[in-house]
Please model this.
Amino acid sequence: MEESVLATVEFLGLVGYEVLIAYAMKAFWPMNQKKKIIYLFWALLPLALMTMFHSESIGNDTQAYTELFDAVCNMTLKQALSNGRFEKGYMLFTYVLTRLFSSRQCVLIAEGAIVYLSLARWLNKWCKAPGLFVCLIVEMLEIDGWMSIQRQALAMAILFFAYDVLIEKKLLRFVVLVILAAQFHAVAYVFLLTWPMLWWFEEHRVNSLKKKWKFERLMAVCAVGIVLLMWPMINFLLRIFPKYQYYVAGAYMDGQARLAIVLKIIVYALMLMVPRWIKNQKWEAGQSVVELSLYRMALVNIVILIAANQATILTRFSGIFSVYAVAEFSEQASKLKRGKNRKIVTVAALILFALYGVIITIYRTPEWQTTYPFEWYF
Model:
């Protein structure tokens, strides 16, 4: 009981800090470039420090990565790259660190620095009002996942650069960056779908503002198909990527995590619909490429979570898109007219998502949700 109380206090304390910083620096609505950089420094600094200097008891996979560092210390480069469990890019990353540093904490320090520098750059470039986004990645425990799944977090950091060239419609660079990200975690390959998802489906009819619904219909068909064909698909993927066989019997396939997934489906669906409902507009005729990309990634994220409700390991795929879904909601909320609507949506989101985080933190569902009470490595 005392542990749950302490965990809740720590979690809400961090949330309170982020809300206070965002409010004080007016980051809940569009910011100029100079103020945005200052805000991102103070908002992301504690999150980066937590990721870099957390104890090995934080996160389900942390100890596996630090122990891998010790093992690689005694390997040649050829031996490290021949490891069958981890991707070659991550093994090379670890090998280089073993030659530069003696402490295995350097794995977490390097990962945290890379992830948050990449995130800060991406937010500075693409997010006009980053305040709500940063608060939500804390409340929705996105940052907690980055402390546990280091390989995927590093892949995500590279995919932020892939997003740039996706928007700029530079196919070759996009493919190269996605392949590079996949050398840290193979789940990054799913990001290749964002190219056809964004560029192969027209949003409106020719010479008309009337919206086409092809993409939405495709997502509905995919959701039904995935639910019906889930396990055959998983078995097929495991034949392609046999290194992930060990997940099948582990916590990542445990049904205890389904409460968190059901909550996520509800939350992300509301995030997608509520701002548009409040604006009393179905779809914007003047959507930018960035807005369209975030909207479609948010839809894909929901479809993946529906699939993950049957096999929770698939939340790894959702992790690739969830950060963009949060950004989509944050940007839509910031576009609401100043006044009651924006204030109500912002306050309601902060309260409801804080409650969501408290539920997950207290009940520790999924079971690898062990960030709070927080422990530093020193």
Notes: The longest helix spans residues 340-363. The chain has 17 helices and no strands.
